[in-house]
Amino acid sequence: MSDISILKEMIKANIPLEVDNKVILREPAPANYHITIEGMPNDDEVIIIKVDEFKSPDTIFYGTYGECKRADFVIIAETSRKKVILCIEMKAGQGGTTTDILHQLEGAKCFAAYCREIGQTFWGNEKFLINYEHRFVSIKNIKLSKTKPLVITDISSKAKLIMRSGKTFQFNDLIQCKK
Q1: Over the stretch 71-93, which tens digit does the pLDDT of each residue have?
Q2: Whole-angstrom Cα distance, residue 125 to residue 56?
Q3: 145 Cβ neighbours under 8 A, 6+ residues apart
Q4: What are phi and psi of 23, to 5 degrees?
Q5: How is residue 99 annotated by DSSP?
């Protein structure tokens, strides 16, 4: 069983692909904005998870160091060419500080690590979600019509961060951290 098959058995809060292999990531009212990612892998190679559907861990953790934050979405793809976990935080305008956004992205990465432990323990798959590359994507100024790259950087060798503005993106550009 593939990692994606296990995740689709495991997770309720997943978002289906559109017919033409694109996904629309939506923030509901009152925020009421969305982005489109085109060129997504096939349905059996990807799962799109709305991470902020899960209850906040603030009933257990204090949150002093940002450990209760999490990004909006996680896209996990396992194709013949690449295994990637893409953590995405969206902001309609300029959004929060870089530190706050990084905490949200790191929280989404921790969610993926939790899923890995669940798959390894309860599905008995020792190699579940192993050897995946992590990418952090912060998308701001979503209401702008033009896509404009802002910053691409390594974050302490943990993951690559790309900060962009706009509404429409290509999946391969996001996972490759291309401008």
Answers
A1: 999 999 999 889 999 999 998 77
A2: 27
A3: 166, 167
A4: -130, 145
A5: H
